[in-house]
Amino acid sequence: MVATLYCCECNLCSLYACPEDLDPKNVCVQAKPLARERGLTFKGDPASITPHPLAEFRRVPMRRLIARLGLGEFNNVGPLVDHSFSPQKVKILLKQHAGLPAVPVVKCGDQVHVGDLLAAPEQGKLGARLHASIDGVVTVGRDAIVIERREQGPLGP
Length: 157
Hints:
A hairpin with a 3-residue loop joins strand 6 (136-140) and strand 7. The protein is 17% helix and 16% strand. It has helices at residues 12-17, 24-37, 62-68, and strands spanning 89-93, 103-104, 111-112, 117-120, 130-131, 136-140, 144-148. The strands form two sheets. The protein has a four-stranded antiparallel β-sheet with strand order 1-7-6-3, with no helix packed on it. The protein has two domains: 2-68, no CATH class; 89-148, CATH 2.40.50.100. By secondary structure, it is α+β, with helices and mostly antiparallel strands.
């Protein structure tokens, strides 16, 4: 029953993957309150979690998903154009999902680069590790981290 707490409710299992045409997503949705009520939680070391050995073979083929959902008749080619997007400022929320909010590992005024760790969950707790998506200067708020690009002149920012 603990595994139901990790269901993200994307519904791929029910709409696409279940070969028996069952509804595993709704089973998880109904079981989550019961699992919480009983105090069931993962008690292991989060670092010990490894991907399923067949994870590479469990990807969702988009053509099959579109057919299964009955979306094949809606062929929207759209105006597909390359677009370069370079925001000057990004806001990254510390709470990303059902887990606890991440704890910042940077402080106001820190300079970060793309990929740098900004925040991480508390040791042994469920949460997301957050990384910088742009280079810039950090402002740490109560529930978010803001990164703002600073234009550099010949002598620095």
